[in-house]
Design goal:
heterodimer, A: about 350 residues, alpha+beta, 5-stranded mixed beta sheet, B: about 800 residues, mainly alpha, about 70% helix
Chain lengths: ~350, ~800
């Protein structure tokens, strides 16, 4: 793969041949040129091949000339006369104006062609509204009326159209920028503006998403995940999500969790059947299906979830959720357990390969 | 000279060499400072999940690193620093066109840096990135206010400095030196000044509107009332892309001078080099939106900008090829300046190539705001322009300080910078492909190769820091060894080498031959046996020292602190000793008092006769160029208004719209005042002093009447409408209000000339203040006619 070889070349140059294996420590292997992930990436690869070809040509010519000049025309101190006082050469000037012009015009043509191709809307694409908030993401399946925060589940092989904005049209947020790194290019999430980008995911897996426009203290902690799953799994998910209705638990811990949720969380966080919440805070309805907590930052396990509930500002600077020093460890465990209970049953998104 | 006399000399000087030193010292100190910030940033990113600089602290650090490097090192070092010191010498002149304005601009520059750093004492540095995107920049702490105010002041400084350069190149050249015989460095400063004057309005508009939105809730960008946040980015990049060429062109000039001198050859393709400079300057204006490919503009809009973006690579390439041609066949003496030029050529080539890659929009979508972009712009700015700043520093060090520098430490500096640079930034290109976004204070463990590449990058930053230490050693050793520099240590060909090192205050005590065969006068004169004829230094008169330009800048600094501290929307005011009203009052009083004192202090103690190339006065040419920037400022804001109006976002209110009859009455006052100023000027030239004073007084009164009517009009408007709720009203208040501010500024200019008239300090020969302010007054008049059309009639 291009990125891997590029990476290795640089490492070799630096003499740091560290044994770095992809997916080490269970991480993602991000690659903006992953050809299997989408047609978008393949298009970019094709374009880059051309550009890199011209780049190599220019690089070799200029660097070659630089090296030649350095070696050949070095002053020896034995010169008896001054060098030839050459003031220029019009033919050369024309040549090194015209040739680069031709090259950049070819690159322009190829770029334009690609842009027209990528700009064509795909008929029948599923529409997902993406809202950027400080410092998390909200996804709304417009065709299905389902809302899910910080994680997006998509069917493989089906075109999807993202409609991206900052805030929700009533509450505006700062500008963010939406990128599913190994899958498709970036679009900004601008308050009052809707930008769009389309992609057809082609490879099942977990994709890493990021905010790429500086938006505040936790800009670096504004991530998300996209789960690309087979069509039947997606259908189960979306049908389950549409039909989802929270039920009252019987287990005493969970009952305590529900009570605390209603007291402490419900004013802000929506939970279908329990709380309306507010649009400018994450929806927690399918929390049990999530693989991450804190907007794609930590794995969704009690080890991270519990301290997050108790003291999120201590973990993520600038986060709007307050700390809850009044909650006992038991209370926190109860809320965590209660949250994990809410999910569409029979789905496990944690085993997907990471890209 | 003792210490305090030396300080006093510095505060009162208008010597272009000392002014150049103010810029050079400030900008290289700024380089060192923000270099250390860069090391701090890399320290935080050396490994995953570090705790050294977290969240907002990191954002402050990256903002100050970027802002300091750009606004206080790379823009001023070449243009204002070397430009001020070297350009008049290269032109064979004794001074710049507007020496006191120039000194004022230098102090304003220093104080704008001081102002931005003052924020550290009032709750923290700006943390919005040097790009300060709206609405993010509306939501942050007081640091952003200081940043906006600092940008406004540094912008004004830059405009005055650029107008001075333009007037100098236009008006002051050694007799016989035609435009096509100017050294390439002079051309590069000239082209850069043009760029500044045309483009700077963009950042003035951007920072002004952000400041107004923070202080008054007055904005064109607020989506809740139909404004467009993307419009902010159009304003911002309209300056900030051409600014990239402001950061480059002076250095390309330095590269050409160094290459020619150390190859013992003339520059290759002189005319083509100039065409390329101008070409870059022109095409550079049509590429700004390539910073905004991901904001979702239309395909056609994007394609236009792709076209010009790839096209600008052509003249840039021509510069590189011509530099190669200059070196080709020479006898290359690899002293430190030439090494830095060679390093520049290699690195700039990489930066150029990756720049074209970024113009390939689908790829740009992928790497927008990633480390690929970080590596790219450091490639062109740090290893490009930055390397050439050091080429210039070593090249002119003997001329400026009068001492040689130790070649060994210069070389060590270069190699550590080159190697450190490559190890820092090459891994960042790869990180771009691996999806690492910029401006992230942390990253998780386990992402493929991120740890290793980031660690390598940090090692590189440490090597760069070692290079910085080698640089310091080179400078300190130069002073300690104290090896006296000859007049022309490198065998340079241009006129700065035709005087002692360092040059005397009057630069040259000779009359140069008037035959200029090429851009290399020293070479040509030696071949033809021409020699300069000595002049008695006692017959040379220089501008008299005065402290008032400095005090005027101090006044603006204090005013700036006051405005920055004024309460933001929704934030409580800073009270107590730091009360904003006190700062503001003291600042304004000091500013006005100093300004009048300055106007009443004659430029020369001895009557002197000015010879200018164009025959126009320096004040006239300087003001003419300055006005370009004012037109651009109104042009940008009005373009923004037209866009909002034509898209249906800004709709004039049906009821209680500002009245046309009042506007027409005001038009009468303003047009009448333009005529009275014109006749007053006429009377002055005819030595009719009382008629002149009377005409000027009438003009000032007419201006005051206009202003009072406008205050009335605004009061009426605010009683019916809220600019926080209606976009059209906001646009009206911003643009018409800005015009009102210009009436105040212009009126102050006329008042200065009037005060000169009362004090008998103005006559038909020395009338620069009146010339400048009457031109400015006509501009205010012309802009008003335009405003009447688009706000009152339409």
């Amino acid at each position: 793969m291009l990125q891997r070889s590029l990476g290795l070349i640089v490492l070799l140059l630096l003499g740091l041949t560290l044994a770095a294996e992809p997916g080490q420590a269970g991480g993602h292997t991000l690659n903006i040129l992953d050809r299997d992930a989408s047609a978008f990436n393949r298009e970019v690869r094709g374009l880059l091949a051309w550009v890199m070809g011209f780049a190599a040509l220019v690089f070799v010519v200029v660097t070659g000339a630089l090296i030649y000049v350095t070696v050949k025309f070095r002053r020896t101190g034995k010169e008896t006369s001054e060098p030839e006082q050459m003031h220029g050469n019009d033919r050369l000037e024309v040549a090194w104006t015209v040739i680069p012009t031709v090259i950049v015009l070819i690159i322009f043509g190829l770029t334009a062609q690609s842009m027209f191709k990528l700009d064509r809307p795909t008929p029948g694409a599923m529409v997902v509204e993406v809202r950027g908030w400080q410092f998390w993401w909200d996804f709304i399946y417009k065709d299905h009326g389902v809302r899910n925060s910080n994680e997006l589940i998509l069917p493989v092989g089906k075109p999807v159209r993202f409609e991206i904005t900052g805030g929700d049209g009533a509450n505006y947020d700062v500008i963010h920028s939406f990128r599913i790194t190994s899958m498709v290019g970036t679009r900004d999430a601008i308050p009052g503006v809707v930008t769009t980008i389309e992609v057809t995911p082609e490879k099942v897996g977990t994709y890493y998403g990021q905010c790429v426009e500086l938006c505040g203290a936790s800009h670096a902690n504004m991530r998300f995940r996209v789960k690309v799953v087979p069509q039947d799994e997606f259908d189960r998910w979306i049908e389950g999500a549409k039909a989802y209705q929270a039920t009252t638990p019987t287990d005493p811990t969970l009952l305590l969790g529900e009570e605390l949720y209603k007291q402490q969380c419900a004013a802000c966080h929506a939970l279908k059947g329990v709380a309306q919440g507010l649009p400018n805070n994450p929806d927690l309805t399918f929390f049990g299906n999530r693989t991450t907590v804190g907007a794609g930052v930590w794995p969704n396990v009690p080890e991270y979830l519990e301290p997050w509930i108790k003291n999120s500002p201590g973990m993520k600077p600038g986060v709007k959720m307050p700390a809850f020093p009044n909650l006992s460890d038991q209370d926190v465990k109860a809320i965590a357990a209660y949250l994990m209970r809410h999910k569409v049953e029979g789905l496990d998104f944690s085993k997907l390969e990471k890209f | 000279m003792g210490f305090w006399p030396a300080v006093w000399d510095l505060l009162t000087t208008s010597d272009h060499k000392k002014v150049g030193m103010i810029y050079l010292v400030t900008s290289f100190v700024a380089f060192g400072l923000s270099g250390l910030m860069a090391v701090a940033i890399r320290w935080q990113l050396a490994g995953p999940e570090q705790q050294f600089l977290v969240g907002d602290a990191y954002n402050q650090m990256l903002t100050m690193h970027g802002a300091t490097m750009l606004f206080f090192f790379i823009i001023p070092a070449g243009l204002a620093g070397f430009g001020n010191f070297i350009l008049p010498l290269m032109l064979g002149e004794r001074d710049v066109a507007l020496p006191r304005i120039n000194a004022f601009a230098a102090w304003l520059f220093v104080f704008s840096a001081v102002l931005i750093y003052t924020s550290l004492f009032f709750g923290g540095a700006p943390d919005v990135g040097w790009t300060f995107y709206y609405p993010f920049s509306r939501t942050t702490g007081l640091g952003t206010d200081f940043f906006m105010m600092g940008l406004l002041l540094v912008g004004l400084s830059s405009l005055l400095g650029s107008a001075n350069f333009a007037a100098t190149v236009y008006n002051l050249r050694a007799k016989g030196m035609g435009l096509w015989k100017m050294p390439i460095f002079v051309w590069s400063i000239f082209a850069t000044s043009m760029l500044s004057l045309f483009a700077l309005a963009g950042i003035t508009a951007a920072s002004l509107t952000v400041l107004l939105s923070r202080k008054l809730g007055l904005t064109l960008f607020d989506p809740t009332i139909g404004g467009d946040p993307v419009l902010f980015q159009q304003f911002f990049w309209f300056y900030s892309h051409p600014a990239v060429y402001i950061m480059l062109l002076p250095y390309l000039g330095i590269a050409a001078e160094v290459a020619s001198t150390f190859a013992r050859k003339p520059v290759f393709g002189y005319r083509f080099m100039v065409f390329a400079l101008v070409g870059i300057a022109v095409v550079g204006f049509l590429v700004w939106a390539h910073h905004m490919f991901t904001v979702g503009e239309s395909l056609l809009f994007q394609l236009v900008f792709v076209f010009f973006t790839v096209l600008v690579a052509v003249p840039t390439g021509v510069k590189i090829f011509n530099l190669l041609g200059t070196l080709w066949g020479g006898q290359l003496d690899f002293k430190t300046p030439l090494l830095f030029v060679m390093g520049f050529m290699f690195n700039f080539l990489l930066g150029g190539i990756t720049g074209v890659m970024l113009a390939v929009v689908p790829f740009d979508y992928q790497v927008q705001d990633s480390y690929f972009v970080v590596a790219h712009f450091h490639n062109v700015l740090m290893a490009g322009s930055g390397f050439l700043a050091f080429a210039g520093l070593y090249y002119w060090w003997p001329k400026i300080t009068g001492r040689m520098y130790p070649e060994f430490w210069g070389r060590v500096h270069f190699w550590l910078f080159l190697v450190g640079y490559l190890i820092t930034f090459m891994p960042q290109y790869v990180l771009g492909f691996l999806g690492m976004p910029r401006r992230y204070y942390t990253y998780p463990d386990g992402l493929y190769l991120w740890n290793e590449l980031n660690f390598a990058s940090t090692i590189g930053a440490i090597i760069l820091a070692l290079g910085g230490i080698a640089w310091l050693i080179a400078m300190v050793q130069s002073f300690r060894q104290n090896v006296k520099a000859p007049d022309n240590p490198w065998g340079g060909y241009t006129l700065e080498w035709a005087t002692s090192s360092p040059p005397p205050s009057y630069n040259f005590a000779v009359q140069f031959p008037t035959v200029f065969k090429s851009e290399r006068p020293l070479y040509d004169w030696e071949k033809e046996g021409l020699k300069p004829t000595p002049v008695d230094p006692a017959t040379i008169h220089l501008p008299a020292p005065t402290v008032w330009p400095f005090m005027t800048a101090v006044g603006l600094l204090i005013t700036g602190i006051g405005i920055s501290l004024a309460p933001d929307m929704g934030n409580a005011a800073v009270g107590g000793v730091a009360g904003w009203g006190g700062w503001l009052a003291v600042g304004l009083v000091l500013f006005m008092y100093s300004l009048f004192q300055w106007a009443l202090r004659k430029e020369y103690d001895h009557p002197v006769v000015h010879h200018t190339v164009t025959g126009k006065s320096n004040a006239w040419v300087g003001m003419a160029w300055f006005i370009v920037s004012e037109i651009a400022l109104f042009g940008i804001l009005i373009a923004g208004y037209l866009y909002l109006r034509l898209t249906g976002a800004a709709v004039p209110p049906e009821e209680h719209r500002p009245a046309l009859w009042l506007a027409l009455l005001n038009t009468f006052f303003l047009v009448a005042s333009s005529f009275t100023v014109h006749y007053a000027h006429h009377d002055l030239r005819a030595n009719k002093f009382s008629a002149f004073k009377f005409g000027l007084l009438i003009s000032i009164i007419l201006g005051a009447v206009f202003f009072l009517f406008q205050v009335y009009e605004f009061a009426v408007l605010f009683s019916h409408h809220s600019y926080q709720e209606q976009l059209w009203v906001a646009a009206f208040v911003i643009i018409v209000g800005l015009h009102g501010a210009h009436v105040l500024i212009g009126g102050t200019g006329l008042a200065l000339a009037y005060a000169q008239g009362l004090a008998g300090k103005i006559d038909s020969h020395e009338q620069g203040t009146l010339e400048g302010s009457s031109m400015y007054w006509h501009l205010v008049d012309a802009v008003w006619l335009f405003i009447v059309t688009i706000f009152y009639i339409w």
